[in-house]
Amino acid sequence: MRSIRVLIAEDHLTVRKGVRMMLEAQPDIECVGEAGDGLAALRMAKELSPDVVLMDVSMPHLNGLKATELLRAECPAARVVALTRHTDRAYMQQLLRAGAAGYVLKQSDPSVLLQAVRAVAAGGDYLDPAITGKALSGYFGRRDATASADPALSDREAEVLRLIALGYSNKEIAARLSLSVKTVEAHKANAMRKLDMTSRTDIVRYAKLQGWFNEEG
Question: 20 to 30 A from 203, CA-CA: which of 25, 101, 157, 192?
Answer without folding.
Answer: 101
